[in-house]
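dumping this here before i forget
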Amino acid sequence: MGNRAVFVLSGPGGPGSPGGPAGHTRHRSSYGAVGLDLDLLAGPEAVLPFLRGHVREDDWYPDDMVEAGVLADEARRLLLLFASEGPIASLRTRAATLELLRCAWPGWEVRWLHDGQTGLRTHLGLDPGERDTDVYPGPALDRDDEELADPDPLVAVVTIGQDRCHVLADIDDHPAEEGPALLERLRDAPEHGSHRLRADAGIHVDPERRRVGWWLNTARAHAGALAGRWPGWTVEFWEDRWAEHERASGGRFAPPAPDRAAALADVRDRALERWAGPRGDVRARLVAALPHATIGRGFGPAVPAEQAAAARAAVRRAYAAAVGT
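structure:
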């Protein structure tokens, strides 16, 4: 199936290069979304050549197919990114990953794109594209669902008014995208009372005041236009500020606070493992092993030992800067 990612980079293409405005090139990867946050922790010297080594393209993946993306503008020293999984998408390690990223890219502005690929296109001055009107909501979970036994459950929390709390599987669209139909769908859904575990996303609905607040750790295409799904309601987008949900719900959503020290060490270790050594040329190996097969071009470039060593050094420097050692 793949884990698709897109990379928009300033640099060697120059004016008129494919994929975007003058001075930018666009690259794609069929498998680059998983681990992208850990790749980026190697800092610009190791990462930018790695990203440029991916195949160049002049078209875009469909928004509902791309799972991660980056825009790195060396002239402005600006890094924009989004991802749908990894430590940067987990409530437990998200803040630590972003902190390490800012240490790994000193002098750069690092920003999260909550509207994903449509945000990339908007930043480039391109048409963001049409919003998909189809919504595929995640199902409501029972209180004893096995997903809730996981310390990092893949769930979205819905609190309604002052007395209702539902937990949905976070496998499709954000519940905020349903609009007021969400209330009818959950009328007879299992009631959880409260949710004191972590979550990936959430929404608080106040039917009396006709107000909605929602957040997520990942990205949704056209996130800024989602308020249009709630005509006549006041909609506030909390970005990744889950504490706003905790306050609005009166504590019925109250996940454990992240342990900064443990999270920083965890993300550091995962990034060091990601860059543990050289990576071979996957596509070249497949072509050699299967000379008559059709092999796609969407594999990452090879990583030599020197680049991997430089990446590990950058990860260690970022961690030292974050903890003040």
